[in-house]
Amino acid sequence: MEVQNKFVALKNRIEGAPLESDLEIKETSLKRSPNEAQIIVKNLYVSIDPYQLNRMKSLCSSHSTTKNASQVKLGQVVAAHGVGRVVASGDERFKKGDLVVGHLGWEEYSVINTSTADGFLRKIGSSEFPPSYYLGILGISGLTAYTGFFNVCKPKKGDFVFVSAACGSVGNIVGQYAKLFGCYVVGCAGSNHKVDHLKDELRFDDAFNYKEETDLESSLKRYFPQGIDIYFDNVGGELLEAAVVNMNMFGRIVVCGVISEYTNKRRSAPNMLDVIYKRISIQGFLLVDYMHLFEEFMSFTCEQLRNNKIQAIEDISKGLESIPSAFVGLFNGSNVGKKLVQLE
Amino acid sequence: MEVQNKFVALKNRIEGAPLESDLEIKETSLKRSPNEAQIIVKNLYVSIDPYQLNRMKSLCSSHSTTKNASQVKLGQVVAAHGVGRVVASGDERFKKGDLVVGHLGWEEYSVINTSTADGFLRKIGSSEFPPSYYLGILGISGLTAYTGFFNVCKPKKGDFVFVSAACGSVGNIVGQYAKLFGCYVVGCAGSNHKVDHLKDELRFDDAFNYKEETDLESSLKRYFPQGIDIYFDNVGGELLEAAVVNMNMFGRIVVCGVISEYTNKRRSAPNMLDVIYKRISIQGFLLVDYMHLFEEFMSFTCEQLRNNKIQAIEDISKGLESIPSAFVGLFNGSNVGKKLVQLE
Fold first, then answer.
1. Are domains B2-135+313-342 and B140-288 of this chain identical in fold?
2. Residue B118: how many CB atoms within 10 A of its CB?
3. In this structure, which of A104, A306, B112, B307 has its CB flanked by the most CB atoms within 10 Å?
4. What are the structural domain ranges in chain A?
5. Is the CB of residue B298 less than 8 Å away from at least one CB of chain A?
6. What helix, strand, coil percent values describe chain B, rounded to 5?
7. Cβ separation of A269 and B273 shorter than 8 Å?
8. Contact present, A80 and A110 (Cβ < 8 Å)
9. Residues of A in contact with B240 (CB under 8 A)
10. Beta-strand pair B38-47/B338-342
11. Cβ atoms within 10 A of the Cβ of B291, count?
């Protein structure tokens, strides 16, 4: 039995900010008869993430360093995290009807080789939470926030924590974990609506709209008169420079993403004299090194969700056709929270 | 009894590269009758170090972060590490004739308050090594190299190590420790004479003259086809950017100094995508955090010196009047090894 499978493909390499026309919707036919060690999944939600842009460039250090960030091939489906339902299975561990999360793709159906699938592939089982949560707060975004904050930032209670792109998929969760842990948390975001959300809904101690600030160094001095102990960086560029100036002694900067530098050649030039004299550490961070903490993360985060101590912030568009605009929107700061596209 | 005391003072704040005319020789009279808890020292050698330039600027993060790097006052003596002989003592722990090392100054005589002196002040006692060694390989330069390399870089045998300013006071010792430890070591320096010295005398695996390279990124790729595990940075700027591109996964960069940025506004803008995807750490480092390792360092390094496994490289000028040119020369790369001025 064959079905038509619509997917989103990369039309050409992208160097600056992405345009919708860099992507195209294509269609192919798919046999719904999996081999052994294959499952066929009908996708319900797919994740739209900034790092995917690096995979679409002609040259990026992401291509050679991790499998999940390898270069996207032209004309082929763009791989992405997703949640889907098994419609046919050649692997006895998965049954028709099972809900799974893993590396799927921006497509209606995905064929997964279960023998070569990475640690992200798993069954959701019956869950008290909506399936979409397994892409955000209970998925890669949550695990990135959890391990990046607790394991890389190594926070102490009372630390002053600054989070950039604080309304983004990872940033909002980092801020929530930091508040739960007893830190003082300030976030920055790109609209007043987001700033209100951070302060009113997510109970950040403070937040500001970086687009309304003329001098980020002074802004941070105003929000952190006692200095910053931890900067969770999702942005890079000018904001990283301003943070370095405002870091405290032995301050820790975890570089999780540098979205401003994905589309822009203006790189951050932090003052290295500050780095030396304040013994600042700047640590690059990727989730793949922390997969072993998945169970710990899930158990902690589910508990917080159950007790309404943490919230899932989702921004969901509908239909495969909305993927290109959803992706382009990430770099304009359109999304509030985890950006997903619902396919069914 | 009074003596005349010549000293080097800062005439005006320095913003770019220093000129000899930024410093002046002054003279004052000094009573050779110390109070209790004071010693008066006739200085034999004083240390000429790049970090002192940061202390001469109008604004630098060094001023507020550590006592030893606080701002130099105009018209007053420039503090500096030195070795001297006690000529009068009000503290029973020090006797006339004792050789001491500590924070003295660019001056003929220094008055030291022993009750408020920092951990650097100590008697040398009878030593098998020349007194000047206690400012270089057995002093702050050696301890910086030792703790920066062993404790901050955390080397593994076989690591590929790059050292910049490798003929400088700290760099040459870092390279020698790294060779002793079993690393592959390449250094860069600013003249062919220095490069020969690194390869022929100090047994670096390789070395190059950065002034003869047109593209530092490719140069490092040539010297490290298998990538860099540890970069001990004394230079900053363009070289730090080139190193980041050539770092291996989980590479460690220890920022000990950024001499190119002391005199130049061109700051380093390392590619943060490399930092993320290769999980690079960039760690600022100051010696003051590692003073507790002094005994361990001394015992190890004396042993290596005795067995000719490590060499002291000194560059000694004579007379207080030569201090301004010696200091200016640091930023032109004139010195080969530890720069000292011998006063007597």
1. no
2. 11
3. A104
4. 2-135+313-342, 140-288
5. no
6. 35, 30, 35
7. no
8. no
9. 272
10. antiparallel
11. 13
CA distance B59 to A217: 15
DSSP symbol at B292: G
Q: Is B268 on the interface with A (CB under 8 A)?
A: yes
Q: Is A277 on the interface with B (CB under 8 A)?
A: yes
Torsion from C-alpha of A38, A39, A45, A46, nearest 10 degrees: 10
Tell which CATH classification among 3.10.350.10, 3.40.50.720, 1.10.3720.10, 2.40.170.20 matches the domain B140-288: 3.40.50.720
Nearest to B82 by CA among B115, B111, B55: B111
Lowest mean pLDDT among A97-111, B29-43, B96-110, B171-185: B29-43
Which amino acid makes up residue A25?
A: I
Per-residue pLDDT at B319 exceeds 90: yes
Rg (C-alpha) for chain B, rounded Å, is 20
Phi-psi region of B103 (alpha: psi -120 to 50; beta: other; left: phi over 0): beta
Residue of B244, B276, B287 to mutate, interface with A, max A Cβ within 10 Å: B276
* B52 and B327 Cβ atoms separated by less than 8 Å: yes
User: Diameter of chain A by CA atoms?
Assistant: 67
Nearest to A144 by CA among A81, A61, A197, A78: A81
* Cα separation of the two ends of chain B: 20
Q: Is some CB atom of chain B closer than 8 A to the CB atom of A170?
A: no
Q: What are the tens digits of pLDDT across the range B46-98?
A: 999 999 999 999 888 878 877 777 899 999 999 999 999 999 999 999 999 99
Strand B23-31, strand B38-47: pairing: unpaired
The residue written with tokens 């995508």 in the block is B273
User: In terms of Cα–Cα distance, which of B118, B40, B108 is closest to B77?
Assistant: B108
Closest of A212, A208, A268, A204 to residue A239, by C-alpha? A268
- Which is nearest to B68 in space by CA: B107, B116, B118, B18? B118
Question: What pLDDT score does A116 carry?
Answer: 82
**Cβ neighbours of A269 in B, within 8 Å:** 267-269
DSSP summary character for residue B282: E
Which of A58, A61, A217 is the best substitution to test chain B (most B C-beta atoms within 10 A)?
A: A61
Residues of A in contact with B278 (CB under 8 A): 61, 65, 284
Does the ipTM exceed 0.90?
A: yes
Res. A66: pLDDT tops 80: no
Q: Is CATH 3.90.180.10 what the domain over A2-135+313-342 is classified as, yes or no?
A: yes
- How many CB pairs below 8 A link A and B? 113
Per the CB < 8 A criterion, the answer to whether B207 and B190 are in contact is: no
B111: number of Cβ within 10 Å: 18
Buried-exposed string A284-322: b where 16+ CB fall within 10 A, e elsewhere: bbbbeebeebbeebbebbbeebeeeebbbbbbbbeebeb
Q: Please name which of B313, B299, B88, B71 lies closest in space to residue B204, comparing C-alpha atoms.
A: B313
Identify residue A256 by its one-letter amino acid code.
C
Summary count for chain A: helices (H), strands (E): 11, 15
Measured between alpha carbons, how far is A146 from A287 in angstroms, rounded to an integer? 10
